[in-house]
Automatic annotation (TrEMBL):
It comes from Asanoa ishikariensis. Keywords: Kinase, Transferase. SUPFAM superfamilies: Actin-like ATPase domain, Winged helix' DNA-binding domain. The keyword Kinase applies. This is Sugar kinase of the NBD/HSP70 family, may contain an N-terminal HTH domain. InterPro entries: ATPase_NBD, ROK, WH-like_DNA-bd_sf, WH_DNA-bd_sf. Pfam families: ROK (PF00480). Belongs to the ROK (NagC/XylR) family. GO terms for molecular function: kinase activity. The keyword S-adenosyl-L-methionine does not apply.
Length: 401
């Protein structure tokens, strides 16, 4: 026979499940009536009424008007209160740090982009804290009022040691406990995610990957990386390192593969990143080349050395994608990062042509990211909003326990 404690626990669990289902459908459907919620969730109308009452008392849901129905009847409409929770999304790039504040509806309310200061952990944390204070003050809250913060960083977050692996552009963050210092910026719960993985989530949620079950976001800029989506879900691998294409081997012949940095950064990243493009142009005779953008602009203008440097890049990327195609059989490759976005018009056609010769498989289509530099932030908001909605519900349950 069930004890009173077991009965109470079961009742509480059912109530939480019902409220979670109703809360989720309100976000999905927008202003919605009780009958519509009953149809969407499969719950009875009385159960819907109880859930709405509890969510309303917790400040998570509100009435927003009436919808005229048949025979003159009107249905009360409900919506989630977007300001019931806040998500702070942080993109820690090499040149810029970008922060946005979004509400529970996923709407970005305010944003700050700031040139990256020192990459020393102490200095970077101080910069992020100051920017977060400015951002939250703009909507009349404090950092402590943020429901969840999502940090997008290079490398892999080792949760056992609290360090970032494979992030050479962030010196000092590979030390044990370094990642735990993000609590200085976020007094509330926070997540640390690989930036390229977040970009893939952003593309899946708002960009070219929407509705595509198998695709990858390939970032080429100051570094290289890949976020992989399989069966509509982000694929992380056994240790969270899936997509670290910077360590793909390349064919023999590129002088940069003997550079000592190739072991630390990875062979593919050494030759295919922005620095690799500049080095290729310099090696071919354009000794004053200073940036990948400069090389791309010159190639468009017909400069033969710049065009040959672009051909070198095409060859490296095509070989990398040939390996990825043979293993993963993807529908789509979304090209992002500074190099991918700036040079996409010069790269995509030749890469597709090379792929047809490198693999006897149907190659994926390749497109430049529609989200540009915002892909990481869009993904961070998407991940953060989903988790933040659960957090505000959990807090409501705890308060009513």
């Amino acid at each position: 026979m069930a004890t009173d404690h077991q009965t109470a626990s079961t009742t509480t669990m059912l109530r939480v499940m019902n409220e979670r289902a109703v809360f989720g459908e309100i976000f999905r459907l927008g202003p919605v009536s009780r009958p519509e919620l009953a149809q969407a969730t499969g719950l009875s109308k009385p159960t819907i009424s109880v859930a709405l009452a509890n969510l309303g008392r917790a400040g998570l849901v509100r009435e927003v008007g009436l919808r005229a129905g048949p025979a003159g009847r009107s249905a009360v409409l409900y919506e989630a209160r977007p300001e019931a929770g806040w998500v702070l999304a942080v993109d820690i790039g090499r040149s810029f740090v970008r922060l946005v504040l979004a509400n529970l509806a996923g709407t970005i309310v305010t944003r700050i982009d700031d040139p990256s200061g020192s990459r020393n952990p102490t200095d970077l944390l101080a910069q992020l804290t100051g920017l977060a204070d400015r951002l939250t003050a703009q909507v009349g809250i404090t950092r402590a009022d943020v429901t969840l913060t999502v940090f997008g960083t290079p490398g892999i977050h080792d949760k056992e040691t609290g360090s970032l692996h494979l992030a050479p552009n962030l010196p000092g963050w590979d030390l044990p406990g370094a990642v735990d210092r993000f609590s200085v910026v976020s007094p509330s719960p926070y997540l640390v995610e690989n930036d390229t993985d977040l970009a893939a989530v952003g593309e899946a949620t708002h960009g070219l990957g929407l509705g595509v079950a198998h695709f990858a976001y390939m970032s080429i800029g100051t570094g290289t990386g890949m976020g992989i989506v399989i069966d509509g879900k982000l694929y992380r691998g056994a240790r969270g390192c899936a997509g670290e294409i910077s360590y793909l081997p390349i064919g023999e012949g590129d002088p940069l593969q003997d550079d000592p940095a190739a072991t630390r950064r990875g062979m593919f990243e050494t030759v295919a990143s922005a620095d690799g493009i500049v080095a290729a142009a310099q090696r071919l005779g354009w000794t004053k080349a200073t940036s990948a953008k400069e090389v791309f602009d010159a190639a468009r203008a017909g400069d033969p050395i710049a065009q040959r440097a672009v051909e070198v890049e095409v060859n490296h990327v095509a070989h990398a994608l040939a390996a990825v195609t043979a293993v993963l059989d993807l529908e789509l490759i979304v090209l992002g990062g500074g190099v991918g976005v700036q040079g996409g018009d010069l790269l995509i056609g030749p890469i597709q042509d090379r792929l047809r010769h490198l693999v006897a498989l149907q190659p994926p289509r390749i497109e430049v990211s529609s989200l540009g530099a915002d892909a990481v932030l869009d993904g961070a908001v998407a991940v953060g909003v989903t988790a933040a909605r659960d957090l505000v519900l959990d807090r409501t349950v705890a308060a009513n326990a």
